[in-house]
Structure formats: C-alpha cells, structure tokens
Amino acid sequence: MTLSTLEKTEITGHSVAAKKPRRRLLSIVEFLLFLIVGLVLLEPVLKLAGVADEENYLLDDKIGWKPVPNRSATFRGEGYSRYKINSLGMRDKERTIAKPPNTFRIAVIGCSMTEGKQVPLDNTYCSVLEKQLNKDGGAIKYEVLNFAVSAYTLGQEYLRLKNFALQFKPDLVVFTARPNALLYMGPDLDKGFFNARPVFGVMPDGTLVEDHNFQRHWTASAEGKRVKNFTWLSTHSCLYGVVGKCAYSLAEYKKNFVARFYLKFVSKQRRKQILASLTLPGVDVRDSMKAQGVALDYLGKVAAAIVRESKSECDKAHCRFLLAYLPTQTRYMNASEQQIIHRFSEDMKLELVDFNPEFEHLQSVSLTPLYIDIHPSKFGHEKIAAYLKTQLEKKGLLKLSNGANSVESAVSSNVN
Amino acid sequence: MIFSSLNFLLFFPIVFLAYWLSAGWLRKTILLFASYFFYMSWLPSYGLLLFFLTAANYVIALAIEKYKHKKAFLILSLAVNLGSLAYFKYANFLFQSFFESATATNGYFGLIKVPQIQPVLDVVLPLGISFFAFEFIHYTVDVRAGGKAIKNPLDFALFAAFFPSQVSGPIKRYQQFNEQLNAPKKLNQLDIIEGLGLLMKGLFKKVALADNLAAITSAGVYKVFDLGTVDAWILMFAFLLQVYFDFSGYTDMGIGAARMLGFHLPNNFDLPYVASKNLIEFWQRWHITLTTWLRDYVQTPLTGFRASRLRFNIATLITMTACGLWHGAAWHYVAWGFVHGVLLVLTREYLQVVKGSQKLKKLHGKKWMIPLACLCTFITVHFTQSLFLAKSIDDALIIMRSMVCYTPSALGLAEMFWQSPVVVPLVLYTLWGLAFVEIPWLPLKNFKNVALVKSFFAATPARQYAFLVCIFVAAIAFCPASSSPFIYFQF
C-alpha cells in the first residue's frame, strides 16, 4: 500500500513542524558560513586586481589627507595604471629621509599632474628627469623626489613642503602649480573626502591664514567619522573599500536628493553660519564663471602668499626654489591665471618655468598625444621632463647653493 | 533609471514586495504603475508618447480584428509606429544627409538653395522607442494575420510598458506575454534564485566588465589617428567584449527582474562569440529577439516562403542594411549592416558549395574545425565591428587600416588593457562560464571536477544565496567610479 503525499504530511506533520525551525537555522548558518568563506576568498582576488580600495588616503588633521603608505592599487581615472605608494607615503620608489652622500636632491611638490597615477612610475616626469640627469653617470647622483599628492591645492602643497619634504634636505624645490590651480583653491563642495582640506586665505596686510573650519565640519559628519574611525580596515582590506564605496554612493545620493535643497530651505541665519565657516565666499568658483574675475583676483593674492611662504621655508632650509606652471590642453588654459602667476613671480623675483607656451606649440605639431585628458600622457611626461631639465640647466639651478658651479665641481673640490 | 543604479536598487524591492503581497487582481495595475514610473523617471513627457502609441495601437488592432479594411488599418498602424520612429530617431539624420548631399552637388545642380546654417530639429530620442515600436508592429501584423487582439487595455498597456524589457528589450511576442500575464502566479524559490542569479550576473557583466572596458574603448575611439596596429586590435577586442557584456548584462538583468515577478522573457544571447561556427549562426545567437523579428517582419515579407536564391540574397542585404539603420541614425551603421548582409550572403553561398562537395563536407566535419570556424567568425565580427564603433565611415576605415597595415603603437592600449582591473573579473567570468555554461565544442561537462563544482554551489538555496551576495560584492568592488550608460539605450 502506498501513502499519498497528503497522508504522509498528516502522519509526519508533527516531526516536520519540529524540524522546520532547526532546518531554517541550519540554512542561515550555512548561508553565513558560505558567505564568509566567499568573502574571504574574494579579498585576495580584489587585491590582485587592485580595486575596491578607493579610500587610498588617510585623513590628516593638518594637511587634509595623505596617501596610504605601501598601498598598491589600480588607478581608474584617465585610463588605467597600477601604482604603488612607497613606505613613506610618496608615489615614488623607496627613498630614505637621510640624504645619501654625493647626492643632489630635487623635491617636486605638486598634485595629480605630477603624481602621474595615469602612467607607470617609470614614466612620470620625476622618474624620467632623474634618469636623464643621471644618464652621464657622474660622481654625483641626482634624486628627483616626487612629493605630489592627488587633488592637493597650492595650500596643501605648501604644508607638504614645510612639514614633510624639507625633512629630506633637498637642494632644489620645484613647486608646481597645476593649470587652474587658483580655481581649485577653495573648498570643494562637490567631493566628500576632498572637503577635508585646510583652506587658505589672506589678510588685508597680506598675511597668509590657514582655516580648518570646513575640514572640521566635514570630519564631524557621519561620513567623516566613518572614514576616521575605520582607518585600519580601509588601509588593510579591499573589501572594506566596498563599504566605503557604498557609503560614498549613499552619501552622494542623499546629497543629491536632500542636501542640495538644504541650503535653500534652512533659515537665513543658519545659511549665514554655514557660509561663514568658509573662508572664501560661499560659492564654488569653478561653477560660477561670473564670479571668476572677482575670485581670481583674491585667489591670486592667496596663491602669491602661499608661494612667498613656501619660498621663505626653502630659504630657511638653504635650498633653491623654482615655481613651475604645468602645461595643459589649450582648451583648459586660463590666460588670466597665467598672467597673475607671471605677475607675482616677477614681483617676488622668483624663478618661474611656464610650460604652456612650449606645450602649446608641441600640441600643434606633435602626432603623439601629450595628454590623456587633463593629465599628461606618457609622452607628455617625457616632454615635461625634457623641458624641465633644459630650464634647470639654463637657469643654473643644478648648482649647489654654496657657490660651487655644479655638484660635480663641488664634489671634486671637496675631494681635493 | 537604469538597472545598475542605486535608484533601481530601491525601486525594484518595493515593486517586488508590492507585487507579491497584493491580491492577484491588483498586480497588473501595480506593474503598470511601476513601469510608467520607471519610464518617466528619464523624462516625464516620454510617458505621454508611450501612452499615445499604446492607445493608438490598441484601437487599431481592435479595428483590424473587427472591420473589413484590415490592410488600411495595418498601414495606419505602420505609419504611426514607423512615423514616430522616423521623427524621433531619423529626422535629423535625414535632414543632415539631405543637406550634405545638396551641398556636395551644389544644391542638386542649382535646383535648390542650400542654407548656410542647416536646420536641426530639437528632438530628444525617447529611450527604447525602437524596441516598443517593433513590438507594436509585430502585434498589429500578427493581428492582421489572424491573431487575436488583446481586449483588456490594461493587458495591452502592460505588454507595451513592461519595465524589465521596456528600454532595451528583449523584444517580446504578445502571444507568450499575454498568456503569462493572465496565468495564475505563485512566488517560488526557483524563480527568485534564478531571477536573482540573472540580476547579479547581469550586474557583474555591466559594471565589472563592460564599464571597465569602456575606458579602454573611449581611449582609442576618439584618437583613431593615433592608433597603432596593436592598439587597433586591442580597441576592437575591448569594444567587442564591452558591447556584449553591456547589452547581454542589461538583458540578463531585465530577464532576471521579470523572472522574479513570475514572467519568462525570451533569451537574447546564446554564446555568440564562442559558439558561432559561421556568421549565420552568429546572428542566430546574437540579439536573438531582434534577428527573429527582422526575419519574420522584414525578410519573410520580402522573400515570401518560396523564394529564389537571388531574391533571398537581395532580401538578406535589405534586411541587414535596415538592421544597421535600426542600430543608429548614421551612415557607418548602415554600412555595418550592409557589410554583414554581404557576408551573410557569401556564407550562405559557401555553405551551398560545402553541401555539394564531399571533400569540404569531410573537412568541416572534423573536430578541430569547429573551434577554428568559431575563431574565424569571431575575427570577422571583430574586424567589421569597427564600422559599428567608429564615429564615421572614415574613422572606421582608419581603424581597419591600422589593423591591417603595421604601425607602431602610440596609445599603448595593450598596456592599458593589462593594467586595467578588467583582466581579473574577465578570468573569473571565464572560470564561471567553464563551470556553468556548456560550450558546444568544449565538452567540459564530461569532466567530473566541473560537475562537482557545479553541484557543490547549487546544492542548497543557502549556498546559492551566499554565492549571489559574493557576486554582488564583487560587482560593486570592480565597478569604476563613473558608470557609463548602456550602449543599446541609444538604439
């Protein structure tokens, strides 16, 4: 005799009901177990691909952010490239803080244009310049140290120079200004993480002032706290990058839906308070072309004060100072900014290298692209290195500050 | 709203819960409301167009069924559907082509005065218009051929607006859809697991693979003059993979979402790059619902059921040229379709030769010949796809020339490809494919280990859910900061 399914259920109904919760529990345990195993296996896969670690920077109270030392990842901005940050937090090969003997050190301070994550390390203009300077194999070794960090403003570059780069005792500092550097000096209202940066202003007497209000404001936010409190995870786990990415996307989503209306609906007083926490006028200058004329004039004064302070720090450390105005595609050029930079360099009697006239010409004759989009291509880096080398030689900046004609002669005189 | 967006991640669970928790009679209304919400999230006025076309086709089909002048009503339906398609998609293309040719022929030899500033219609292409226009045409033609018109306006509105297939297909057939729409549905685990599986697979294809390949493609396509030979091959390889992962990813997500709501949409892809032994087979495996639509509603009416070889070949050429034009209002798409038409004709003629030759038959029957034939098909598609990718025929010819005549690499796309994060997910996807998909010429199913892996993951729902969560995490991890729009949205 065979039992129908219904009869079977009726007979065994009690035991089935008793087993159900246990089975469900077992399913949950199995799910969690397999999920954990799956995620653990995913971690090295992500590491291998160099993804999901978007939080490539550590928050820093003084400067805003710093690269995570020893971080290796895939850059996915303009094109792709695998990059590695060295143990000192520089996009460079391993260096020592102490200067090796018979070495002429050039410290290059800058932003993403110099950091060059778009190209392999060997192709950044700092690496190419170092190779070119050492090509002759003289007694002196040249080191071109890359201190650039993505999205740094001129103010942050100044802090990087003062608090970090000068520890390496450079003989020459190349302080770079990216095209549109003046317009990128304000707080970046669009980018969460990049809000956490000090903002610089200038007093009527020309004194440079540093303002951390905006930075503190962001760090105190939920997203700021998350970034700060989970530093270990974000520096050690690629998977945590997924959390960061989701949190960032959600924050963006919220910003688009809520925060964009926030300033419109808060009381006038609250709006004033928020705006007052910014040193600069509460406008994103890049979005407001009308404000450019006014803003540029003010920002030019701030930039001049930053450069003056940077030079004075270099003077104190007995190293030479060169201001380099990096090239960009003609369509991104800002002639007013170029004029401002030339004007204050002349006023301060600074050594200035403006790459733009040369690169404008190159752009029109070269068959190989100089830029990926905003950032230089491999070929562009090559050309920057070549032009910089020519200018350094022409301006006699490869001489030591003790009066010797060149490092070689300084060494030979020391040897004698 | 796109399937791979945060909006959809919020939208779909709400629709899913509302659909399954509501009473049966309310479900269609919920789906229709959700579908219009989904469509109008792009641009609210799009909804009006969809509504107008739906209403027009609904009434026309009823008229075809009821009245004697069936042909006249069918022509009216074609005029409405093709007219709106022509206006929204092709008006500017026609204007531009007319004025360009007029300029070239000096105002058609002085007959017309060519204005210095050419007029441009300020028309925004409504998303998915090609897809739902094709569905409407299929519907009215089938009703004209004796099919039953849909009486319930809600059913018909849902056939037109069903959000999982609304924007990029698959192109549905109303007979199957209507049957499913009115069949009683119960939420079951299999539908959820398989639907979720397709959603995750599609998401991974789109954001981990296609979006990462997009950067390589765009690095090359705007700089065709700088392409070296290796660059050109890498560019086309990246684009070929991108377009497949992008479109099949979207389709997978659409089919998966529909499956979770208890609907089975037709499959659109069947291993086109790895299992097509010739170009005819490629088109039977690539965008299947479009190919079958073109066969049924363009080629067959042109040939009739007993056509001569010549007539059949001419019909193929016309159909494929129309297929090219459907893909985009530009001459390079037309050229792409035409070239594929020519290649299809040549393939068909060659197959006839093979049929008549014992030697060739024997050769083609050899085991090693199948992967070789698949490789040749892949390379053919690879080469001709430059007409699809490039911004103009001139650009396409430059890419083709770079592929054939050696020039040193200037853009370094090969290096970019290897440095990109796409290699690892591509390997993962291939491994997954080897374990779970049966490739005709690769009898991996006979290997015990593969079967073991397959059964290990599919053993219990808990394992499958865990696996799906891992795919979701991996997809987000590999997703670049800016996701590019689906390629087939523009069509």
Q: Report how far the terminal alpha carbons of chain A are from each other.
A: 113 Å
The total number of structural domains of chain B is 2
Strand content of chain B: under 5%
Mean pLDDT of chain A: 80
Secondary structure blueprint with pairings:
The complex is a heterodimer of chains A (416) and B (491).
Chain A lengths: L4 H45 L7 E4 L3 E4 L4 E4 L5 E4 L18 E7 L2 H4 L9 H9 L7 E6 L7 H10 L8 E6 L21 E4 L5 E4 L1 H7 L2 H8 L1 H6 L1 H28 L2 H9 L12 H28 L3 E6 L9 H14 L2 E4 L1 H10 L12 H17 L12 H9 L1
Parallel strand pairs in A: 5-6, 5-7, 7-10, 10-11
Antiparallel strand pairs in A: 1-2, 3-4, 8-9
Chain B lengths: L5 H16 L2 H17 L3 H23 L3 H35 L1 H5 L18 H16 L8 H9 L12 H9 L6 H33 L7 H32 L11 H4 L3 H7 L2 H16 L5 H19 L3 H26 L1 H8 L3 H16 L1 H4 L3 H12 L8 H7 L3 H14 L11 H10 L3 H18 L13
Helix pairs in contact in B: 1-2, 2-3, 2-7, 3-4, 3-6, 3-7, 4-6, 9-10, 9-23, 10-19, 13-14, 14-15, 15-16
Written account of the structure:
The complex is a heterodimer of chains A (416) and B (491). In chain A, helix 10 runs parallel beside helix 11 (335-348). Residues 1-14, 277-290 and 403-416 of chain A have low confidence and may be disordered. Chain A has helices at residues 5-49, 112-115, 125-133, 154-163, 213-219, 222-229, 231-236, 238-265, 268-276, 289-316, 335-348, 356-365, 378-394, 407-415; strands at residues 57-60, 64-67, 72-75, 81-84, 103-109, 141-146, 172-177, 199-202, 208-211, 320-325, 351-354. Chain A contains 14 helices and eleven strands. The N and C termini of chain A lie far apart (113 Å). In chain A, the strands form four sheets. Chain A has a five-stranded parallel beta sheet. A two-stranded antiparallel sheet of chain A has the order 1-2. A two-stranded antiparallel ribbon of chain A has the order 3-4. Chain A has 416 residues and is α/β, with parallel strands linked by helices. Chain A has a domain at 60-186 and 280-415: SGNH hydrolase (Rossmann fold). Chain B has 491 residues and is an all-alpha fold. Chain B has two domains: 12-115 and 123-185, no CATH class; 191-478, no CATH class. In chain B, helix 4 (70-104) packs antiparallel against helix 6. The longest helix of chain B is centred in the first third of the chain and has 35 residues, at 70-104. The chains are: A alpha/beta (416), B mainly alpha (491). At the A-B interface, helix 1 and helix 8 of A face helix 9, helix 20, helix 21 and helix 23 of B.
